[in-house]
Give the backbone structure.
Amino acid sequence: MVTDSSNQENQRDFHRCGVEIAFSFSIIKGKEIVGPYPAHTINLSGGGMFFATTCPMLQAGDLILAEFSEAADAQKCSDANLSGDFMARVIRNTANEADNVTKTDCERSYQLAVEFQFLHKATKNDIVAFLNQYEAFLRHQQK
């Protein structure tokens, strides 16, 4: 069987939606929790998210606890609830190369891919419902 690498999006378990939502996260280091640190999503799915932060401390394999607030602007267009804490494991950390050239370490933007951990199926369904409503809202705005 031949696989097409350009079809990577379809190989994921969940559709990813480009949405910017501010949230905070804490890093779970053994028995300690360090944070919170500010961040914002770049895209989101029922299985994980890609986000940006100025926190340089995350590496692949680290666990984080992401906390979404009900007050997020993107959530105003949806009846679905995205608030709460979500545990996730970092699977990729990439410093924004353009930012590395002109900014100091504390101002660099880091982009991270995380996979949600220990989510109930109902919570994944809530995330997918939120994203479906958000995309419908965007389509309606474009008309």
